[in-house]
Design brief:
The complex is a heterodimer of chains A (about 450) and B (about 160). Chain A has about 450 residues and is of the alpha/beta class. Chain A is built from 19 helices and 11 strands. Chain A has helices spanning about 5-10, 40-45, 50-55, 65-75, 90-95, 120-125, 125-140, 155-170, 200-210, 235-250, 250-255, 290-295, 320, 330-335, 355-365, 375-390, 400-410, 415-440, 445-450; strands at about 105-110, 145-150, 185-190, 230-235, 265-270, 280-285, 285, 305-310, 315-320, 325, 345-350. In chain A, helix 4 (about 65-75) runs antiparallel to helix 5 (about 90-95) and helix 6 packs across helix 8. Chain B is α+β, with helices and mostly antiparallel strands and about 160 residues long. In chain B, strands 2-1-3-4 form a 4-stranded mixed sheet, with helices on one face. Chain B has 7 helices and 4 strands. Chain B has helices at about 5-15, 25-35, 40-50, 55-65, 85-90, 90-105, 145-160; strands spanning about 75-80, 115-120, 135, 140. In chain B, strand 3 and strand 4 (about 140) form a beta hairpin. The chains are: A alpha/beta (about 450), B alpha+beta (about 160).
């Protein structure tokens, strides 16, 4: 007799397709993983926790000061992997280290940007690399309490991370007087329960405080008023995961992996119309064409039409533009989009852009938290307009109206969800206006005269 | 009423937060109640409010804000199929429609025997595994083509002694 749990277990992801393949290029975070070697012992065998030992001077050296750690991260050129691409070392230097009260460290693992599934594989198959990165960050900023906020839909990943935390505590890497030093750091896992908005850092903080996840006004920024009103630094999962390598190998070596101002490797989640969707860890600055090749190319028999390069909130780029780009913050920005979270959504020449935009617009309407009127009302307007165009009921004036609604959302909301809903609309109109026009019924000249 | 066993699970969550910030555990407590009872009732919200020392309305605000809390009873298995763009490009809608046909219900409905509730959902964060589906909040199912969907539904029915 097969139990329900056994039935469900048959369909659980194995990571083989998305993570344990040989199509990464010089991976640092995903290196040498196989799905069974996630535990502390295996992580140590791969060189894990050596960076922490080095900082604390446990391997014979003098150790590193807080300033030295931050300087190394600054030198590395590491930029936030969650979407904004803000320099990590600079963010860490904003933390008022001398603040006398409690300070907090938060990891944003609320991975819900459509297209993104990289942090899931890090936390599932290499959880200790995130824990070590967070411990190092806490040391550098003098923080003694941290939380990892994990996307509610990936409960098995949350349980894996909790198991890894138990291992790290038992080994003395977490808790009071870490490895006999004067440095203490407590770290816990917190799960969401289905709210895209909680990936926004101040909404995440509200959620962590046990409230609705509605974003806060900035300023004050979390560095001065964060979790429980205390100074807080928030970084993405992949950002923390990059830190141990940087400490072990030096900031200059990390920067050299990528290209100037775009240091290191980045994990790209490639989804949509490719032969081999999955996560690919490659140096920043790798040509898009190479990434597409790693992902098996566009589906057999089809041509590349368009790519959304950084998660659903980033503007779409036509094939001719993206094929000239390298995958790094600066190249994608120059092309008129954003590297974002590194979620590369590929669309082939069979795809209707009106239909694609309709689904995205529905998503933003559904996930608007309702706090700001331009977003709450505007996202509904966007969806209804695209929906009626797609159903064949569009009116000629709808094109201008779409653009008008989108521009009246942008810059008028507390958080970036409004912009995230509006930007895809404007980019779709810019590059694929003819597809929308073709779906809008032409006014009947006879009907016009008889009226 | 919240049982002592459930309170022990609550206590493990509360212990993660500073003593004066017990409210931070509300999402975890609600998820625990939902796992044990299938949905979050008003009585459960009242019990959690009392346990955490917060207003009941503040608990209700959390229940109603987050997508995954069931505000009403659902089937024994809640099937949430992602149809967001990355999944749409790889058969997410087809998976949803296949389940509608297989179960004889529309999305948002529950089968007459109370076994399955079918929902469309937003990004599960498993985009490269599309079509992706989440079963009863805690079990992610990947690469769910029609054959696998059939195996899953038939397998769960068999496990529940319906075949």
């Amino acid at each position: 007799m097969t139990t329900a749990a056994q039935v469900l277990a048959q369909f659980q992801a194995t990571g083989v397709q998305t993570c344990f393949h040989d199509r990464h290029i010089n991976p640092q975070i995903y290196a040498d993983l196989n799905g069974t070697n996630w535990s502390l012992k295996d992580y140590e065998a791969r060189g894990g926790y050596q960076a922490l030992r080095q900082i604390l001077g446990k391997d014979g050296g003098e150790g590193l000061t807080q300033d030295q750690v931050i300087a190394t991260v600054k030198e590395s050129g590491l930029r936030g992997r969650g979407g904004a691409g803000f320099p990590t070392g600079l963010k860490w230097s904003f933390m008022p280290r001398q603040f006398p009260g409690q300070k907090h460290l938060v990891c944003n693992s609320d991975e819900g940007e459509p297209g993104t599934c990289k942090d899931r594989d890090i936390l599932m198959y290499n959880p200790h690399i995130v824990i070590e990165g967070m411990i190092i960050a806490a040391y550098a900023m003098g923080i003694s309490l941290g939380y990892n906020y994990i996307h509610g839909e990936i409960f098995q990943v949350y349980e894996r991370f909790e198991a890894a935390l138990d291992e790290a505590r038992a080994a003395g890497y977490l808790g009071d007087s870490i490895m006999g030093s004067t440095f203490s750091f407590q770290l816990h896992a917190h799960h969401g329960f289905g709210a895209y908005i909680c990936g926004e850092e101040t909404a995440l903080l509200e959620s962590l405080e046990g409230k609705k996840g509605q974003p806060r006004f900035k300023p004050p920024f979390p560095a001065s008023f964060g979790l429980y009103g205390k100074p807080t630094t928030i970084n993405n999962t992949e950002t923390f995961a990059a830190v141990p390598w940087i400490i072990r190998n030096g900031g200059a070596a990390y920067l050299a992996c990528g290209k100037p101002n775009n240091g290191g490797t980045k994990i790209f989640s490639v989804s949509g119309d490719v032969e081999r969707p999955g996560n690919y860890e490659i140096p920043l600055g790798t040509p898009f064409s190479k990434l597409l090749e790693l992902a098996g190319g566009v589906r057999t028999g089809r041509q590349l039409k368009a790519v959304i390069p950084g998660g659903s909130s980033s503007p779409v780029l036509p094939a001719s533009v993206i094929m000239e780009c390298t995958m790094d913050y600066d190249s994608i920005a120059k092309a008129g989009s954003m590297l974002g979270s590194g979620a590369v959504i590929v669309m082939d020449d069979s795809r209707c852009m009106v239909e694609s935009l309709k689904r995205l617009s529905y998503f933003y309407m559904h996930e608007s938290c309702g706090q700001c009127t331009p977003c709450r009302e505007g996202t509904g307007w966007l969806w209804r307009l695209v929906d009626r165009i797609q159903r064949g009921d569009g009116r000629p004036a709808d094109m201008d109206l779409l653009d008008n609604v989108a521009s009246n959302i942008m810059g008028r909301t507390i958080c970036a969800l409004g912009d995230a809903a509006a930007m895809p609309v404007r980019a779709m109109l810019k590059h694929y206006r003819h597809e929308f026009d073709a779906m809008i019924r032409k006014p009947n000249p006879q009907a016009a005269t008889s009226a | 009423m919240i049982s002592e066993a459930t309170k022990a699970r609550f206590a493990r969550e509360v212990a993660k937060y500073p003593a004066d910030q017990k409210q931070s555990a509300v999402m975890a407590c609600l998820a625990i109640v939902q796992q044990e009872q299938g949905h979050v009732s008003e009585a459960s919200e009242a019990g959690i409010a009392e346990y955490l020392g917060m207003p009941q309305i503040a608990v209700h605000e959390v229940t109603t804000f987050y997508n995954m809390y069931n505000q009403h009873p659902v089937g024994k298995y809640k099937l949430a199929v992602c149809t967001n763009l990355p999944c749409q490009l790889r058969g997410g809608n087809e998976a949803l429609h296949h389940l509608e046909k297989k179960l004889g219900i529309h999305m948002g409905e529950t089968t007459a025997d109370g076994m399955f509730t079918l929902q469309q959902c937003e990004c599960l964060g498993a985009c490269a595994d599309a079509p992706a589906m989440l079963v009863s909040d805690r079990h992610m199912c990947s690469f769910m083509d029609n054959d696998k969907l059939d195996q899953l539904v038939d397998g769960l029915r068999a496990a529940e002694g319906q075949q």
